[in-house]
Amino acid sequence: MDPASLDDIIHRLVEAKGSRAGKQVRLLEAEIRQLCVVSKDIFMQQPNLLELEAPIKICGDIHGQYSDLLRLFEYGGFPPAANYLFLGDYVDRGKQSLETICLLLAYKIKYPENFFLLRGNHESASINRIYGFYDESLIDEKILCMHGGLSPDLHNLDQIRNLALPTDVPDNGLLCDLLWSDPSKEIQGDIHGQYSDLLRLFEYGGFPPAANYLFLGDYVDRGKQSLETICLLLAYKIKYPENFFLLRGNHESASINRIYGFYDECKRRFNVRLWKVFTDCFNCLPVAALIDEKILCMHGGLSPDLHNLDQIRNLALPTDVPDNGLLCDLLWSDPSKEIQGWGMNDRGVSYTFGPDRVNEFLQKHDLDLICRAHQVVEDGYEFFADRQLVTIFSAPNYCGEFDNAGAMMSVDETLMCSFQILKPAEKKSKFIFGNTAAAKTGTPSPGVKVSSCK
């Protein structure tokens, strides 16, 4: 391709940064065809697994939002001022897919060793016959990048290097997973200041952002390192606000953690003012989460005052936890095999509810599962109401007085749930990990088997 023609195309495309959003850039069909043909030759000459070196700027989906692409370049530096790796999905949905892909291809042609384009799931079917995007990248042999995620069929990187191109995207298998899969959602129960166990859970499930996390509350009190526990969780929430989620437990309340240890830890190590700052923060925590409109999560359980999910959405924040009512029940109630309907709670707060209430609630709201914490369970997790409710508790050897395991629940994109177990060990010895077989939510089946990894 003639360098002067290429520079002219880039000039016209970049010149649009001063124009109104959505204004089309004048490009000839012959120019677009030439960009596709020349860039395809470059893609075919480079390996499937691009082994890149830092420093490099990595960008996610663009989806035809051309004015935003130009803003990214203004912020990070127009090529060749910086090296770039794009992770796919350049086209579709936005109004200027043509301008977007043409500028990216033009930069790929002009700076083939500094500008890299991976394939996304939207670079598929008839589109990939023209554009020919590649699937993976490795930076300094340490950072693996792809558009989607990992695959159960991926055992070594040579499998990626040996993928045959050009090819369409199949409905399953390695290539499909690399473009379509997402990190699982890891759900954790009570931590209660057991900081070393929190770190072990991250070691097992992957430190953020390797996995998406949802914690069900009760981060402080009783354990010896409530401050370290809550500070790490808040730091991850700030760093990964769209992938790391913290719900409120009944111990994220001034009236409770004033008694059970967090207040004393703050006062001993810092001052009471810091405890009050945490109280203000806790009063703003959300109290429930809905995963893919099918799995409802909270710290405690159901409430006789809960008739629809909009009631939870409309709870006013910031707020302290009242002594009764919807918010209190979401943080305090417990399931009970001994009753039908609603019963009095031995805690002296809120209610207990029977399996009939769980079944009725799920059917009414078209849900598959209720996931909650709040109670110590021997195996770290425990099903209730024919597997329609599960209790997760993530602090093993709770308070040094129980022999319970800790658990976290992984939810994949098909809503298949599996459990990773942090098993209790002999006194004064290290914990060992275990895992369980997977189970589909809401599906009664034989007991889940546990295997230990020693």
UniProtKB/TrEMBL annotation:
Residues 118-123, 247-252 form the Serine/threonine specific protein phosphatases domain. It catalyses: O-phospho-L-seryl-[protein] + H2O = L-seryl-[protein] + phosphate; O-phospho-L-threonyl-[protein] + H2O = L-threonyl-[protein] + phosphate. Its EC number is 3.1.3.16. InterPro entries: Calcineurin-like_PHP, Metallo-depent_PP-like, PP1_catalytic_subunit, PPPtase_PPZ/Ppq1, Ser/Thr-sp_prot-phosphatase, STPPase_N. It comes from the Eukaryota. Keywords: Hydrolase, Manganese, Metal-binding, Protein phosphatase. Belongs to the PPP phosphatase family. PP-1 subfamily. Pfam families: Metallophos, STPPase_N. GO terms for cellular component: cytoplasm; nucleus. Its cofactor is Mn(2+). This is Serine/threonine-protein phosphatase. GO terms for molecular function: metal ion binding; protein serine/threonine phosphatase activity.
